[in-house]
Structures are given as structure tokens and as C-alpha cells.
Design a protein that fits this description.
elongated, 38% helix, 9 helices, 2 domains, five-stranded antiparallel beta sheet, 16% strand, three-stranded antiparallel beta sheet, alpha+beta
């Protein structure tokens, strides 16, 4: 640390920080981001040098952090930071300088109209947080990404079929051993104890009807027979259970009673997720007119910001 003319105790790796910065109510933002994104957090959260923490200097200040959060995530500030940040390809570096120099309208709490603007923004943020909390409950159906991290125009990722089956009531899901709609046949000299799922064949039409072949690492095979749509669901689910034994696989409750039950639950989940994402977007959009008014943005320049 001689470069900075600083000295430290032997057990210190870097400049110490006030623990209070990382605790309680705060706004957190990333150092590098595709677009400006600020989050509200309560409780303890210890971040590294690739993020910033924003806390009020005066705990008695009447301005809510959620008021500031609404402004920071608005299209107005998104536009301003896109000009003041340091672009690096598709991402922007948000240095402390542009954030510290950002003008935030202070509220005259003796002015009812200004107080209403403040309170409306806080209320919208609360509703967005509640909606995102509800949306996060559906993350188990989309294991490749957290739904709250999707941008507004991003399509939904592939849904996890096993999560759909697990969401069905217990009496509507079965194992391969207990499902009456699936018939099981085995290859000659089959040894269940030695069967380890290695490969899943395609659902093919045979003289006995639709068939799905499960192939082991040893010369063993299992043939599942049933409705095409049901076999396709089983095939998708078993992709996540490769290298497991037949003893384990046949007891997994991964089969819906009917494909109608499965599709109904799937559409129910997708519908709820789509509605929540739409609700969040409408709430976010409701923030911008209030922020435009606070900053006195002209109608012509509002169009510039919206089209950015």
C-alpha cells in the first residue's frame, strides 16, 4: 500500500469499511451493467468492490430510499447515466463520479403536491417489490435464470417439465412403477440392479404402439409404452436423471396422471408469470411521468428519452 502512502495492520488485506454500510436499508447497484439497475435491500449484505451501496447520510431525512430508488431506475436517469457512464461494448461502467453528481429533486414536505409525488413513487416501488417477490416464487419452474433478472423484452426460457409435475396435487402424479398408463418391458437378461440410465431414445411408433427406449451403460434396455404425449413428457424429465439407477428412477413421482393435467398446470404457471411480468412493467411505466414532472422534462425531450 506504499503507492497510496498508507499503512495497515498485518491482518488487514485492504482498507476497512464501516460495517453499517452493509446493514439496514440501502440501495445497491453494480459497477458494470448492461443498463442502469438499482436494487433495494434490507438487512445484512456484504458486497465487494464491483458494486456500490447508497445509504442516507442523515437517518432523520424524510426522503424515503424508495423515492430515490424510483428515480434512479426511471427512464430519465437511465438516459442520463448512458451519457455519463463509461461504455465498454454492451456494458456501461458506472463510476462513483456520475452517480455522486446526479441531481435528485428534494421534496418540500410542506408542499402537499410534492409530498404526493414522493408518496406515489414510494407506493409504486412497494408494489413492484411485492410483485417481484411473487414472481420469484416461480423460479423453480425456470431453473436456467431468475425471472426477476429478465429484461422486459426477453422471452420466457424453457419451462422445467418436472417442476410442472411436482406442482400437481399428489393424487395426480405417479412413478413409473405405479402409473397404470405406462407399460414397461425389459430387454433379454435384464438386470435392474445394474441398470444406470445413460441415454434416452426417441419416442417411436411400433406395432404395439408408441414406445420410448431407455438405454443403460451396460447392454440393458427398458421399453416404456403409452400415449405419445405422455412418453414425450417422461423423456424430457428423464434428461435430468441420467446416471441414476433404475431402482431410483422407477420410484420418482415424475408422471402426470394425464397429459391434460400437465398442460393445464403448465399454462396456469405461464399465465401467472406473464401477468406478473406485465404488472411489473406497467408499474415501472407509471414511474416515468412522475419523474418527468419532478425534473421538468419537456414533452419533446420526453420523446427523446423514451426512444433511447
Amino acid at each position: 500500500m506504499s503507492r497510496y502512502n498508507e499503512s495497515y495492520n498485518w491482518f488487514e488485506l485492504h482498507r476497512s469499511r464501516d460495517q453499517k454500510i452493509f446493514e439496514g436499508k440501502k440501495i445497491v447497484c453494480g459497477y458494470r451493467t448492461e443498463e442502469p439497475c438499482f436494487a433495494y435491500h434490507e438487512g445484512s449484505f456484504y458486497g465487494s468492490t464491483d458494486m456500490y451501496f447508497i445509504k442516507p447520510i442523515n437517518p432523520q431525512d424524510k426522503h424515503s430510499l424508495k423515492y430515490l430508488l424510483a428515480i434512479l431506475n426511471s427512464k430519465t436517469i437511465n438516459f442520463w447515466l448512458s451519457k455519463k457512464g463509461k461504455p465498454k461494448g454492451n456494458i456501461t461502467e458506472q463510476f462513483t463520479t456520475p452517480i455522486e453528481n446526479l441531481y435528485v429533486p428534494r421534496i418540500d414536505f410542506n408542499n402537499p403536491e410534492k409530498v404526493k409525488s414522493h408518496d406515489n413513487l414510494v407506493e409504486l416501488v412497494d408494489k413492484i417489490i411485492d410483485a417481484k417477490r411473487e414472481l420469484s416464487k416461480f423460479n423453480t419452474f425456470f431453473p436456467t435464470i431468475q425471472l426477476t433478472h429478465l429484461s422486459e423484452n426477453s422471452p420466457l426460457p424453457e419451462i422445467n417439465p418436472e417442476s410442472i409435475v411436482q406442482a400437481l396435487s399428489p393424487e395426480k402424479r405417479f412413478s413409473l412403477r405405479t402409473c397404470s398408463n405406462i407399460k414397461i418391458a425389459y430387454s433379454r437378461d435384464f438386470e435392474g440392479a445394474k441398470f444406470i440410465l445413460n441415454k434416452i431414445g426417441k419416442t417411436e411408433l411400433t406395432l404395439e404402439g408408441p414406445e420410448l427406449m431407455l438405454i443403460s451403460k451396460t447392454p440393458n434396455a427398458i421399453f416404456l409404452k403409452g400415449q405419445v404425449e405422455l412418453l414425450q413428457i417422461i423423456s424430457m424429465i428423464l434428461e435430468n436423471h441420467k446416471n441414476k439407477s433404475w431402482v431410483t428412477i422407477k420410484e420418482l413421482p415424475l408422471i402426470p396422471e394425464t397429459t391434460i393435467d400437465y398442460e393445464s398446470k403448465k399454462q396456469e404457471v405461464i399465465g401467472k408469470v406473464v401477468n406478473l411480468r406485465s404488472k411489473i412493467q406497467k408499474l415501472k411505466t407509471s414511474i416515468d411521468p412522475i419523474v418527468f414532472k419532478l425534473y421538468g422534462v419537456s414533452e419533446n425531450f420526453q420523446l427523446v428519452i423514451k426512444e433511447h
